[in-house]
Design a protein that fits this description.
alpha+beta, OB fold (Dihydrolipoamide Acetyltransferase, E2P), Dihydrolipoamide Transferase, Chloramphenicol Acetyltransferase, seven-stranded mixed sheet, four-stranded antiparallel sheet, 11 helices, 19 strands, acyltransferase, EC 2.3.1.-, Single_hybrid_motif
Length: 438
């Protein structure tokens, strides 16, 4: 018999940790190779961790809601025969001894965290705190107000383990500062967050628990509104050429490529071109600094069967032609609906496009997907009467039109840039080459 350490697999270059949401196997259960053992979640994607071997689950080192680092051992599986240790030529007995020590260390850490935890409640915050960060805060008796003041360096300003440990290390110096403050500076402290307004519930009302993803989306949206100064620009676009061209080529495209040709890749192509013309749309804000992104990674908001939204990312969208964009859009949309996205599929976005027209809306005011500074909403395409200008004069005709709604961060994107960008997207769409082949 041998012991195999099941580790949290690498899930993408930008994913360093995941939260365990559910164990699919219990201690004593038989597991086959490639069979899912547990479910995990990153900021936006749920995934399964499969077993790499056949065997029996003998140890679970973490429980639900625990945050685990990539490469960290999460379970022990007992197998028949010998297993090559990935860390070197270690005997089975040595491996077992090392594993037992690891298990003991983890159990001791967890028990210490529980024993020293204070009664402080961090659940009223609009920020997301991982269970690990909360445990460290409780161990160090950090108050809710203190934790809210810790600057996060993680995604969307999230407080990471390193952030909270750095705060604890320098806490003595930070706590000494209020004593030297003048009464004037002390009075300038931010007022505490007001308590939530009580909501009355009667016997006929139904109380529905928010899903984990729903809670995360809620936190992200509130955080975005509190972070960015949102402002919008709107423009109407004549997409008659695109409408007619797509109808002409979509059947041939489907036969040749085995893919549907939707409007989305056409819009994504125009957005990528406009970003190349206005690269200061493709930025993020870090305090008083602006980070100008080299790659153009377009997020495309996709609706899930449960009503939530997820934003998979088309990496280096400006380097793909229309066929490549169509294949990528279809792949991401299909896997999003099936719950098969990988954590890295939703990471690294630099600008987002959302199609509110899918639900019949002609325009919208979308909330920026942090840490980006802009998001474009595509309205429904409508057949409308319009004035058509020709060398022989103006006349009324039937055209296909839609609205583009651009929300942008007014801290760093002024009205001229925000308006010129969405105008350039419109120009690319209206000048679409109907003679091209795909």
């Amino acid at each position: 018999m041998a012991k195999f350490e099941l580790k949290l697999p690498k899930m993408g270059e930008s994913v360093a940790e995941a939260t365990i949401t559910n164990w699919l196997k219990e201690v004593g259960d038989t597991i086959e190779e490639d069979e899912a053992v547990l479910e995990i979640a990153t900021d936006k994607v749920d995934s399964e961790v499969p077993s790499e071997v056949d065997g029996v689950l003998v140890e679970k080192l973490f429980g639900p809601d625990d945050v685990v680092q990539v490469g960290q051992t999460i379970a022990i599986i007992e197998t028949e025969g010998e297993i090559e240790n990935t860390s070197g030529a270690t005997s089975a007995s040595e491996q077992t001894t090392e594993t037992s020590a690891n298990v003991a260390a983890v159990e001791e850490t967890v028990s210490q965290a529980k024993a020293t935890a204070s009664n402080e409640d961090y659940n009223d915050s609009d920020r997301f705190y991982s269970p690990l960060v909360k445990n460290i805060a409780k161990e160090e008796n950090i108050s809710f107000e203190e934790l809210e003041s810790v600057k996060g360096t993680g995604k969307d300003g999230r407080v990471t383990k390193d952030d909270i440990l750095a705060y604890v290390k320098n806490r003595g110096e930070q706590q000494a500062k209020p004593a030297t403050q003048s009464p004037a500076s002390a009075s300038q402290k931010a007022a505490p967050k007001p308590a939530a307004t009580p909501i009355s519930v009667n016997g006929e009302d139904e109380i529905i628990e928010m899903s984990r993803m729903g809670k995360m989306i809620s936190h992200h949206m509130v955080n975005s509104v509190q972070t960015s100064a949102h402002v919008q620009s709107f423009i109407e676009v004549d997409v008659t050429k695109i409408w007619n061209w797509r109808n002409k080529v979509k059947n041939e495209f489907a036969k040749r490529e085995g893919e549907k040709l939707t409007f989305t890749p056409i819009f994504m192509e125009a957005v990528a071109k406009a970003i190349k013309d206005f690269p200061l749309i493709n930025i993020s804000v870090d305090g008083d600094k602006i980070i100008k992104r080299k790659n153009i990674n377009l997020g495309m908001a996709a609706a899930l069967p449960d009503g939530n939204l997820i934003v998979p990312v088309i990496k280096n969208a400006d380097q793909l032609n229309l066929v490549g964009l169509a294949k990528k859009v279809n792949d991401l949309a299909t896997r999003a609906r099936a719950g098969k996205l990988k954590p890295d599929d939703t990471q690294g976005g630099t600008y987002t496009v959302t199609n509110v027209g899918t639900f019949g809306s002609i325009m919208g005011t979308p909330i920026i997907n942090q840490p980006q500074v802009g998001i474009l909403a595509l309205g429904a395409i409508r057949k409308v009467p319009a004035v058509i200008e020709t060398p022989d004069g103006d006349f009324i005709g039937i055209r296909y039109k839609m609205f583009l709604s651009h929300s942008y961060d007014h801290r760093v994107v002024n009205g001229a840039l925000g308006g010129q960008f969405v105008q350039r997207v419109a120009q690319y769409l209206e000048s679409f080459d109907v003679d091209q082949t795909v």
